[in-house]
Automatic annotation (TrEMBL), chain A:
Region (Disordered): 173-204
Name this protein carries in UniProt: Acyl-CoA dehydrogenase
Stretch forming the signal peptide: none
The keyword Manganese is annotated on this UniProt entry: no
Any GO molecular function: acyl-CoA dehydrogenase activity
Keywords: FAD, Flavoprotein, Oxidoreductase
Alphabetized InterPro entries for the sequence: Acyl-CoA_Oxase/DH_mid-dom_sf (IPR046373), AcylCo_DH-like_C (IPR036250), AcylCo_DH/oxidase_C (IPR009075), AcylCoA_DH/ox_N (IPR013786), AcylCoA_DH/ox_N_sf (IPR037069), AcylCoA_DH/oxidase_NM_dom_sf (IPR009100)
From TrEMBL, chain B:
Required co-factors: FAD
GO cellular component, one term: plasma membrane
Domain named Acyl-CoA dehydrogenase/oxidase N-terminal: residues: 7-124
Keyword terms of this UniProt record: FAD, Flavoprotein, Oxidoreductase
Record-linked InterPro entries: Acyl-CoA_Oxase/DH_mid-dom (IPR006091), Acyl-CoA_Oxase/DH_mid-dom_sf (IPR046373), AcylCo_DH-like_C (IPR036250), AcylCo_DH/oxidase_C (IPR009075), AcylCoA_DH/ox_N (IPR013786), AcylCoA_DH/ox_N_sf (IPR037069), AcylCoA_DH/oxidase_NM_dom_sf (IPR009100), Mycobact_Acyl-CoA_DH (IPR052161)
Lineage: Bacteria, Bacillati, Bacillota, Bacilli, Bacillales
UniProt family annotation: Belongs to the acyl-CoA dehydrogenase family.
GO molecular function: flavin adenine dinucleotide binding; oxidoreductase activity, acting on the CH-CH group of donors
Span of domain Acyl-CoA dehydrogenase/oxidase C-terminal: 234-388
SUPFAM superfamilies: Acyl-CoA dehydrogenase C-terminal domain-like (SSF47203), Acyl-CoA dehydrogenase NM domain-like (SSF56645)
Protein's UniProt name: Acyl-CoA dehydrogenase
Recorded superkingdom: Bacteria
Keyword hit for Flavoprotein: yes
Amino acid sequence: MDFSLSKEQEMLRQSVQKCLQNQGGIEIARSYMDGEPQRLKKTYGELVQLGVTSVNIPEAYGGVGLSNIDLVPVFEETGRVLLPGTLRETVAFATPLIARYGSAEQKEELLSGIANGQMTFALAVVETNGSYQLGDIEGTARRQGDVIHLDAVKTVVHGGMDATAFLVPVRSDDASSDGDSLNGDSSNGDSSNDDSSKGGSSNGDHEGITWLWVERDHDGVTVEPLQSFDATLGLAKVTFSSVQLDEQHVIGKWGNGLEMCEDCVQDLHAAVSAEMIGAMEHVLDSVTEYAKTRVQFGQPIGRFQAVKHRIVDRRLELETAKSLVYYANWAVASGSSDKTAAVYSARSYATEAFIRAASDNIQLHGGIGFTWEMDCHLYLKRARALENYLGSVQDFEEQTASALGW
Amino acid sequence: MDFSLTSAEREFQHALRDWLEQNLPAGWKGSRSLPKTDPERTQFLRDWQRRLYDGGWAGVAWPKEYGGRGATLLEEVIYQEEMVRVKAPPVINIIGIGMIGPTLIQIGTEAQKRRYVHKILSGEEIWCQGYSEPGAGSDLAAIQTHAVKQGDKWIINGQKVWTSYAHIADRCFLLARTDRSGAKHDGMTAFLIDMHQPGVETRPIHQMSDHYDFNEIFFTDAVAYEEDIVGEVGEGWKVAVTLLMHERVGVARQVFSLQRDFNDLVGFSKTLTRQGVRLVENPVVKKRLVDYYARSRGALLTYYRHLTQTMKTGHPGVEGSMDKLLCSELGKDMLGYAVSLQGAHSPLWHEDAYVNSSWQDGYLESLGLTIAGGTTEIQKNVVAERVLGLPKDIKH
Ligand SMILES: Cc1cc2nc3c(=O)[nH]c(=O)nc-3n(C[C@H](O)[C@H](O)[C@H](O)COP(=O)(O)OP(=O)(O)OC[C@H]3O[C@@H](n4cnc5c(N)ncnc54)[C@H](O)[C@@H]3O)c2cc1C
């Protein structure tokens, strides 16, 4: 038994850490917030050089052929500096989605684009009704001959301002579900490690969801920035208006999008959770440091138990979250039978622990913690913004419960 | 990352399982099958330890030359896991086997090893650990019980309290003050005391769990000899700490009990209904159960991460304090919930308990686990100071 990251995994962490520090660490996010995305672009390029975007791409397509467990240290480090952008969606969702369900041509084109950094993806899932359930999707895809017509308005698209392309689930007509799908079922869309993870609560219609991918500069695509208290996320509203696509833009089987999503979204939530523990660790390291140096009543405030015990409580939660998150990523990578429960319980636990840590960090810094200058608020805002990213804590808990058979 | 067992570890596990199948007391159903009162209860537990010993399963972590199995760390963990799984009877000489024997093997004299070690393992002699006093609990170095040298004897006077198993113990590992002139951590000495002598009086204390496992001990001119001293005179603090370091696998038993209790709790909530709906389907209950799932898995996995570190470095670190905190606090919370779910029936106890008394018993016992072995507050200080490097608490 060995429950730790390997030497190689830790080495990847170190090079990512160094790369991020060379670019200024949290300053990447700060300058992004100030409307200067160049630093982020440069950082992304460096991460690509390090091979971060190739880690989990199959060797047959020029990748390293590892799995998401190998990405855990990467996401811990990007989380630690609140890296903006699309690395997470690209590597932890687009890559598994395309690798598992894409056609041979798509794998060739899109995966190599991801590997060399030319292509980055954002998930255009949520619509104005705010629902996460794919069953509630109203955006549509209709076939007319060889042409697919896409009409949808997607909102709160994380990294929408930065991605070169969007992954868009829409409600598809059943025109071609009788078999004239051109590439869908020729692909090896085997969801072999599906462990019946149907979310317990979705109502809506589960039939006929299809995943499309659309270039950002495609005719009919409009991207508008959205204001957010977390300005590091590059949130956007993306409108697809009479967008005409060819068959190459359909990922997986026409109408089969729900199952694909339930599979790959677990990779994504495992990655989000890894970012959370990286960020949480940073928050706790900094509050610990502050408690050692800030003097009141002639004592470092860390001597007061009301302060030190609160830090310890959060630290214990971090340890717990870290264990759950490492395990969840291992479970996804190894297709373990408890993976759905492992992922969603890690996601809900880490989410709440991160919020508490980020909030206590502000409290224990006192007045200075309430300022824009300090980084404290950036972590709280990220914690709150990720809280409801593609699911709420309640959703994750229900998914855990149903995976456990309750 | 790898959660598999080696073939040697698997063999160890199977050998133990086979043995348990053959040797668990007939009709054993967990601790509620224990005889309710003494002396039957103690006799039952002594017999159980003897059986473990005869089967070679009493001191798995002990070196082979002292009658143990020389088990690896992970095998010892597997041992605890199996014992919890079958709800095996507790080991009555747990303090002797877990801490005192290994301490004597490590730093005892040859004579002490010859005289005591074997009988600890066989359960012929039961031991207790006399540290805490009325005025010295968390602040252990404040102990007042003192030993004064007279000729070749040491004369001991004072009082210990909360001493588990003292009422049945043959010997006590006693921490006493032998010099009051210096700083309070200096001038202590560790003695191996005969409990069957006129100067030692033991009074059982009635615990909130309705058991009588811990005691007061009064020393009135009790006697110890030169050969009963462990380590050097005045080095008692160091010896006391050495003894505590022998908690090699830390909270293994607690962490596995948590998993078992969690599973039982889920099973339990499937059998209870409220307004015709099974509790496990009640959204409020379900949320709580999911939370316990995450936290109990989290405690177990965190324990495994720390264990991995221990296996790599060769010695347990202060992380054990985190494990203790997580397990003991979570256990109290979760068992309390299991009681609470019983609604109007929840206060019923013993024979009148709603299902059986083990939820009530487990919950009441859990309140001691956040106190014994260093309270939650003290453990938090340890983590704050030794893991995070925060300033030391006020001390004098
Ligand atoms: C079931 C059980 C079995 C036991 N078995 C044994 C045994 O076999 N041998 C033995 O020697 N002892 C034994 N003990 C005693 C145990 O070690 C002590 O109870 C424990 O160390 C606490 O000491 P105390 O009871 O004097 O409480 P105190 O130290 O008086 O603590 C009272 C409260 O004050 C808090 N407190 C104390 N100091 C601080 C501080 N610096 N900062 C913040 N809070 C503080 C504590 O956390 C606690 O909440 C046992 C106890 C129990 C419950």
